[in-house]
């Protein structure tokens, strides 16, 4: 790839050049990470061979740091799915329950944005529908960074909240649901042909929480894929053409993810496993009353520190799920 990039005519075709430079940068980062680790191990071994008691504390600290680094890279090596290293699109939909459910969807959005920020991932709100009184009805977010999809695919399913509702004058306990969808944001690499007669394109005015720039013209785009019923909206870009292109990219990613999901369900049936519909597939409970507990129903991983989880500390839950999947040979 570096030889290709160094060629004088490389940027003559920007559409082909951009994905190559992006992939090369990611591969270079991965290689550099392993090389740096190997060099640190060599340096630590040299320190150990010196057998100097004065270096014992420094050597012990470096050994612990190396163990943590190796464990982290070993875990990432388990993220070997075809699209695990890709960017992701995450969508959240409030369930039935009006304002309470819409507020829960907003809380989940904040949780995932905090998680992405700690990893220094690039975040872009593609489309957002505000709630009637508070919260959001739905949102779709592009999260760009290495292994974004690999980690976030553990979050697909229904998330359940139990709490004393701040919107209930009688301070009663409410249960709310929200559906989280995740698919790889592959963009230029997807070779899926979509027939014009299979899609319906609507335009509308971008504005409010969904667009960074309130528009006077109909720049926002909604594409409906008629055979599957999938609906994709984009209103974050400046022009209708840009929004249409981005929405088509997201639609192709969703169609690819839908096909992947069908294959997984067929495999589950062959294995004799029960396959739930999306809204029946509850994966995690967040209980804020009468006690504090977040529990993943697939792995039984749990914590009483609900505040930390809602602030984006999700890695333990994600890793527990992915390790369980790897153990099952998934």
Number of strands: 11
Gross morphology is globular
Radius of gyration: 23 Å
Number of self-contained structural domains: 3
Q: What is the name of the CATH topology of the largest domain?
A: Alpha-Beta Plaits
Question: What share of the residues lie within helices?
Answer: 40-55%
Give the uncertain stretches in residue-range form. 208-216
Q: How would you write the strand order of the largest sheet? A: 2-3-1-5-4-9-10-11
What's the SSE pattern?
Answer: HHHEHEEHEEEEEHEEEHH
Q: How far is the N terminus from the C terminus?
A: 31 Å
Judging by the overall fold, what is the CATH architecture of the largest domain? 2-Layer Sandwich
Features:
42% helix, alpha+beta, eight-stranded mixed sheet, 330 residues, Alpha-Beta Plaits, three-stranded antiparallel sheet, 11 strands
Sequence-ordered SSE layout with sheet pairings:
Layout: H1 2-6, H2 14-50, H3 56-78, E1 87-94, H4 99-118, E2 122-130, E3 136-144, H5 148-152, E4 157-164, E5 173-185, E6 199-204, E7 220-225, E8 230-234, H6 240-270, E9 282-287, E10 293-296, E11 302-303, H7 306-310, H8 315-327
Parallel strand pairs: 4-9
Antiparallel strand pairs: 1-3, 1-5, 2-3, 4-5, 6-7, 7-8, 9-10, 10-11
Helix pairs in contact: 2-3
Report on this structure:
This protein is α+β, with helices and mostly antiparallel strands and 330 residues long. It folds into three domains: 2-78, no CATH class; 87-190 and 275-327, 2-Layer Sandwich (Alpha-Beta Plaits), CATH 3.30.70; 196-265, 2-Layer Sandwich (Double Stranded RNA Binding Domain). Helices cover 42% and strands 23% of the residues. The protein has eight helices and eleven strands. The protein has helices at 2-6, 14-50, 56-78, 99-118, 148-152, 240-270, 306-310, 315-327, and strands at residues 87-94, 122-130, 136-144, 157-164, 173-185, 199-204, 220-225, 230-234, 282-287, 293-296, 302-303. The longest helix is centred in the N-terminal third of the chain and has 37 residues, at 14-50.
């Amino acid at each position: 790839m570096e030889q290709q990039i160094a060629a004088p005519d490389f940027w003559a075709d920007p559409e082909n050049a951009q994905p190559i430079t992006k992939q090369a940068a990611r591969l270079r980062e991965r290689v550099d990470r392993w090389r740096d680790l190997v060099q640190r191990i060599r340096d630590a071994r040299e320190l150990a061979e010196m057998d100097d008691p004065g270096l014992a504390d420094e050597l012990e600290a470096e050994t612990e740091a190396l163990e943590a680094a190796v464990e982290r890279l070993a875990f990432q090596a388990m993220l070997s799915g075809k699209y695990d290293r890709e960017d992701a699109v995450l969508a959240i939909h409030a369930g039935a329950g009006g304002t309470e459910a819409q507020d829960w969807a907003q809380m989940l959005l904040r949780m995932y944005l905090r998680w992405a920020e700690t990893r220094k991932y690039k975040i872009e709100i593609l489309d957002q529908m505000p709630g009637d009184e508070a919260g959001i009805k739905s949102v779709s977010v592009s999260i760009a960074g290495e292994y974004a999809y690999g980690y976030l695919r553990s979050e697909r399913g229904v998330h359940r909240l139990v709490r004393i509702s701040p919107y209930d004058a009688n301070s009663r306990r409410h249960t709310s649901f929200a559906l989280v969808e995740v698919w790889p944001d592959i963009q230029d690499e997807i070779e899926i042909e979509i027939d014009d007669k299979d899609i319906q394109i609507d335009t509308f005015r971008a504005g409010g929480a969904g667009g960074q720039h309130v528009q006077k013209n109909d720049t926002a785009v909604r594409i409906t894929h008629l055979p599957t019923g999938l609906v994709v909206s984009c209103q974050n870009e400046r022009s209708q053409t840009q929004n249409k292109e981005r929405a088509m990219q997201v639609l192709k990613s969703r169609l690819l993810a839908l096909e992947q999901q069908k294959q997984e369900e067929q495999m589950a049936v062959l294995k004799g496993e029960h396959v739930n519909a999306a809204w029946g597939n509850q994966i995690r409970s967040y209980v804020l009353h009468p006690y504090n507990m977040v529990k993943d129903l697939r792995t039984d991983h749990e914590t009483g520190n609900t505040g930390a989880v809602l602030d984006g500390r999700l890695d333990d839950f994600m890793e527990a799920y992915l390790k369980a999947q790897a153990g099952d040979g998934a």
